[in-house]
Amino acid sequence: MTKSVELQKEVWQELDRIIQEHRGDRAALIQVLHRCQELIGYLPKEVQVQIAHGLGVSLGEVYGVVSFYSFFSTKPRGKYRISVCKGTACYVRGSMEVLERLEKELGIKAGDSTDDGLFTLEVVRCLGACGLSPVITINDNTYGLVRPDAIPRILMAYRPAGVA
Amino acid sequence: MSEVTLTIDGQQVKVPKGATILQAARQVGREIPTLCYLEGINAIGSCRVCVVEVQGAKTLMPACVTEVTQGMTVLTNSPAARHARRLNLELILSEHPNECTTCPRNQNCELQTLAEKMNIRDVRFRGPSHSYAIDASSPSIVRDPNKCILCRRCVAVCEKVQGVGAIVPLERGYRTTIGTAFHEPLLEAACVLCGQCVLACPVGALYERDYTDQVWAALADANRHVVVQTAPAVRVAIGEAFGLAPGTVSTGKLVAALRRLGFAKVFDTNFTADLTIIEEGSEFLQRLQNGGPLPMFTSCSPGWIKYMEHFYPELIENLSTCKSPQQMFGALAKTYYAQQAGLDPAGITVVSIMPCTAKKYEAQRPEMNSSGFPDVDYVLTTRELAKMIKTAGLDFESLPEEEYDAPLGISTGAGAIFGATGGVMEAAIRTVYEIVTKTELPGLDLLPVRGLEGVKEATLTIGDATVKVAVAHGLVNARKVVERVRDKTADYHFIEIMCCPGGCIGGGGQPITQMDDAKQKRIDGIYKVDQCLPIRKSHENPAVQKLYQDFLKEPLGHKSHELLHTTYRVRSRFGSVMEHV
């Protein structure tokens, strides 16, 4: 778990508003988590506590759901979220080599983010595009039939101009 | 109620509509193995060791969650069912460490028993072995996720019976574990340490923190004067560890065993249970006269205390300030008894035998050291004591019946019934009535507060006053009462709460049993103890009377406050993760 974060007052107000909409409604947990993550980019401890408090569920229940779905993150994430599919089809068609190349190019391990806050590298299960395997997504863009050698070129498009 | 007729292994069975195959099978004496199933608490059909063949069904069906239908034909022992059950058990075993000989649940493990019943001689698969850290952060409960089979029985008990939700399933797939939010150590979580999860665990993934080595060491130390106290609920359950039926009253043998283990004095927590009645009863009358805060909650159950501190700190003032009988005993052993026996309290070790895991935590609370030394040094559960008796080679059943030592071993029937839900209330009423009215209570048995109903109530006329009392056990039941108090929709004056279902006889430190009626039998045993004692009212306990005469002087007096009363703290319902919310 990362250290505690200082969220801006306006962000807390918006969080409170989202939580208040579902006060005491246990069934709204996933929805609230989605919206809060959308707002902050991840789900720090303090926010999970606030959600447990507002929805009237135990902190364990909130954290259990957050840790279950790979979509939810408890760490701050980069501007661009790279998801490497390790589903069966992608795996047999070389997604591990793609992942290794990404790790090398970005200088981070899967699950981490680059120091400049630009990229987060994640491994996901099936993305539902097995016909294009191996597949990676960067935010809402999908790349199919990815070869490791194509990685530098793909990343280039997300890097500010002039940065190698 | 409409009924359904079905055939199980060629035998016709009639069961109520909505019954499961498992229930129907039990009705005709067919035992289908189960592992994740816990009657009335956990029915999720996840372990698949209860699968049976249902004619016409495409797949084998889990008996614990499949409802019977009219005309259904079930085969519980067909080759296909047997094969699948065995395979499923082997798969569970493939990830389980084979450490039976050193496991705290050796010979009392449901997984081990099933493997034996299914005649498993070889596990054909080898799953990944986990190396999770063992959580021994709390003095009460140890969690070993490596042994966990993910049945979720502990999770269900914590959530549905206690309403605490301290442990939950985390992560997913192979990495799934049962743990606390953010993988915090149990001691840091909003866990009340009641140990109901330990009773629910079929394997050795949850167990009490063992202090038997420390107690053996103290007993072997010639420089220490080691005294022991036994809680009311221990004497009606310890026999189970030696093959006796639940509820067998083993008081005399328990005393004999403790003496043979080498304790210098064998005393009884029932003595301080009687004392609690005097102090708590006086406190209640004082609150009644001074206008509150009312209602007053009892404070004997340390799991309940921690629950209030975490979840309802706004009602802390409603808790009686009385220490629990365990702690009162310790404080007196190192002051009153030390004085009488001419001993230096520094050289006295106080050991408690408790049906409880939360008592281990209570004993270590920093405020529990009234004499300048910890009131209680070591707390052993009923289970740990049974192990010591076995280690020492004592044949429990053939031990003679012996008596407790005086003076801290003298007690009444009122002290004895502290072990059952409703007992503290009944004991208190026996005394409060006579203090107020100065007349004898007609009939000592306060039947409305006895028994296993979750919340019990009674309205009593004591002198000119009408007193409304409530009794709850199990924290989900307690919460119902507490929330009504918080919302000011209840008009109770005095409320007894016991953390564990059934009261202390159902405590997390008691022998682990799969017998459905064990709680009721232990309760019956408790009232038998009460019936058989010549004195059944706390204020008539001669040793307690002498204690006031020679030492304490008066209830709620200066010495009492110093030694027998305590304070509570505000905690967060999110544990130490977030104290500011």
Could you explain how this protein is built, in words?
The complex is a heterodimer of chains A (about 160) and B (about 575). Chain A contains 7 helices and 4 strands. Chain A is of the alpha+beta class and about 160 residues long. Chain A folds into 2 domains: about 10-70, Arc Repressor Mutant, subunit A; about 80-155, Glutaredoxin. Chain A is elongated and about 50 Å long. A 5-stranded mixed beta sheet of chain B has the order 2-1-5-3-4, with helices on both faces. Chain B has a 4-stranded parallel beta sheet with strand order 11-10-13-14, sandwiched between helices. Chain B has 3 domains: about 5-95, Ubiquitin-like (UB roll), CATH 3.10.20; about 100-210, 2-Layer Sandwich (Alpha-Beta Plaits), CATH 3.30.70; about 210-565, 3-Layer(aba) Sandwich (Rossmann fold), CATH 3.40.50.1780. The model of chain B has no long low-confidence stretch (mean pLDDT about 95). Chain B starts with a strand and ends in a 17-residue tail after the last helix. The longest helix of chain B is centred in the middle third of the chain and has 22 residues, at about 270-290. Chain B has about 575 residues and is of the alpha/beta class. Chain B contains 18 helices and 17 strands. In chain B, helix 8 packs across helix 14 (about 425-435). Classes of the chains: A alpha+beta (about 160), B alpha/beta (about 575). At the A-B interface, helix 3 and helix 4 of A face strand 7 of B.
